[in-house]
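Anyone up for a design puzzle?
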């Protein structure tokens, strides 16, 4: 009697063994991949690959991998022989570089963790290389293989939920779009018939990073499909993990591993089969490499999970709908996370301000100064005291925003030394009415508020830079909501006007610099506190203190 030879084992390298740390980063997903490969229907010889000796050793021990099958990096594996497959289980920045290295060496089975990459250009490059090589590349969006998802997919296929499908997916535990919502994006594409047509998103970012990339604190993402289906995805406080699909005939909800169905006859929990998603994923990859069907999570299908992350970020960045396929190939949140450094970044500012008749201007101005300099300004309350020479140590610019009448001798001496020494002085809105009895200050101003003569109509303003743009404002025109526009100011010394304001009463100077002291600059608009959150006000400030 002859027996057919046992199939040769597949050699599978797990790139990134991982370590379960209990923190968000540190899931050790490599263990789930190894389990999946061992259950793929073929004998498997696992290689443990990780530069971290502790992670590598623990993984090797767990899976009984002999020492000679452990490696510090992929190059060492390839030097010993090309494996049949790899699982890329590192942090996202390494996913595509490692996958390309494997494919270029001739590896034909690649499973890559999500998000596929931190840059859509890399996803597209990986797709090209995989297609050209005829290799099977799949993404670990293993939720497509869950039993309750399979039942939900069938339910949708039979039309049991009716028409006008609306999917809502929430992400709990403070997770973010790239690390988590990518799964729900992928699932929505699976359930609703592929990639949506367009995406609209808003997100909040306070500086958080995770897995080596910028992550939002909270987000709202809306996606729409050609056939009218829509999906909303939420991250942020108070969320739990769930997916709900509502149609004209019923609602189905995936939550806590169950599938609930609400219809006209009431609600029930549907029976769903228990599955091992990674076993199914790896089995499909192995079968596909032997001529079987395309895996449900192939890169061609599941790359959308990552593309939608960048589409959402790009929509939030541009504040507009974004069409799919996405044109930009970079990571938009990284751009938001690294704002363009303007001329005022790093400038240390002293703000001498009063509360300006309760306008909120002092707080708004201080917040704007912090944004344009990246530093918290030192604020002195002008109603409490003036300046001393010591205040001006370690300062790059002084901003005046108050209408106090008298300057004491110390203030006069300190500021005179400052200005005569070339120090930057920015006189903002209220500051044009400050120290009305101090002639030198009035000369620095160039135009001043003439008490009893000047007025301030409250109108929407159109700001226009002059042709010479002596303040280097760098824009041509801007609009401000109704606020005090100072008119009929008194000229005290020659100035170069850089900006005019047009209101129903006419066109008037709005920003200028002194001819005699070019480092002394004035900016008229800015009574309302909220005005200081507008880009044009920030641009003006940057030009004044930068
Ligand atoms: N599919 C899922 O459900 C799921 C769940 C958790 C995490 N993830 C994803 O898996 C990825 C890994 O996350 P994790 O939490 O398991 O990380 P982890 O930190 O636990 O493991 C990453 C491992 O990669 C190793 N490594 C670093 N550079 C390497 C290199 N050049 N070659 C080989 N190994 C290298 C590290 O030493 C570490 O052991 C992330 O993209 C994450 O989003 C997916």
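Challenge accepted. My sequence:
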């Amino acid at each position: 009697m002859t027996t057919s030879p046992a199939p040769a084992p597949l050699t599978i390298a797990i790139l990134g063994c991982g370590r379960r740390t209990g923190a968000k980063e540190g899931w050790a997903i490599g263990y789930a991949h190894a389990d999946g490969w061992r259950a793929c229907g073929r004998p498997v010889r696992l290689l443990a690959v990780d530069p971290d000796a502790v992670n590598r050793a623990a993984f090797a021990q767990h899976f009984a991998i002999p020492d000679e099958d452990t490696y510090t990096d992929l190059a060492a594996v390839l030097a010993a022989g090309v494996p049949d497959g790899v699982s890329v289980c590192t942090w996202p920045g390494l996913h595509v570089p490692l996958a390309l290295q494997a494919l270029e060496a001739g590896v034909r089975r690649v499973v890559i963790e999500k998000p596929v990459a931190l840059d859509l250009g890399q996803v597209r490059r990986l797709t090209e290389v995989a297609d050209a090589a005829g290799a099977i590349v799949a993404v670990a969006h293993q939720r497509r293989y869950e039993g309750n998802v399979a039942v939900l997919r069938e339910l949708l296929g039979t039309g049991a939920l009716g028409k006008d499908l609306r999917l809502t997916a929430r992400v709990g535990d403070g997770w973010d779009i790239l690390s988590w919502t990518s799964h729900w994006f992928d699932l929505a594409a699976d359930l609703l018939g592929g990639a949506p047509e367009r995406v609209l998103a808003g997100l909040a970012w306070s500086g958080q990073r995770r897995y080596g990339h910028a992550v939002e604190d909270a987000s709202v993402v809306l996606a729409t499909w050609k056939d009218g289906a829509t999906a909303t995805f939420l991250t942020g406080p108070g969320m739990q993990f769930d997916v709900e699909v509502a149609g004209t005939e019923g609602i189905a909800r995936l939550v806590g591993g169950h599938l609930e169905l609400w219809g006209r006859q009431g609600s029930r929990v549907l029976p769903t089969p228990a599955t091992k998603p990674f076993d199914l994923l790896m089995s499909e990859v192995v079968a596909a490499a032997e001529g079987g069907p395309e895996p449900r999570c192939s890169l061609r299908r599941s790359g959308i999970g990552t593309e939608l992350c960048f589409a959402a970020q790009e929509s939030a960045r541009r504040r507009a709908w974004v069409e799919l396929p996405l044109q930009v190939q970079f990571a938009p949140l990284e751009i938001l996370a690294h704002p363009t450094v303007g001329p005022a970044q790093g400038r240390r500012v002293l703000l001498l301000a009063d509360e300006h008749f309760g306008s909120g201007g002092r707080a708004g101005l201080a917040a704007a100064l912090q944004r344009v300099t990246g530093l918290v300004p030192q604020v002195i309350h002008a109603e409490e005291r003036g300046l001393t020479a010591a205040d001006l140590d370690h300062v790059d610019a002084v901003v005046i925003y108050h209408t106090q009448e008298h300057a004491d001798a110390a203030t006069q001496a300190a500021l005179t030394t400052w200005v005569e020494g070339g120090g930057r002085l920015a006189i903002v809105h209220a500051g044009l009415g400050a120290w009305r009895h101090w002639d030198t200050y009035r000369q620095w101003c160039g135009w001043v508020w003439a008490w009893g003569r000047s007025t301030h109509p409250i109108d929407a303003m159109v700001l226009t830079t002059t042709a010479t743009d002596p303040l280097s404002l760098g824009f041509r025109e801007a609009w401000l909501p109704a606020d005090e526009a100072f008119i009929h100011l008194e000229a005290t010394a020659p100035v170069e006007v850089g900006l005019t304001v047009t209101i129903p009463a006419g066109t008037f100077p709005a920003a200028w610099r002194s001819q005699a002291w070019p480092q002394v600059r004035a900016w008229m608009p800015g009574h309302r506190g909220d005005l200081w959150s507008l880009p044009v006000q920030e641009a003006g400030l940057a030009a004044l203190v930068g």
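A detail worth pointing out: The radius of gyration is 32 Å.
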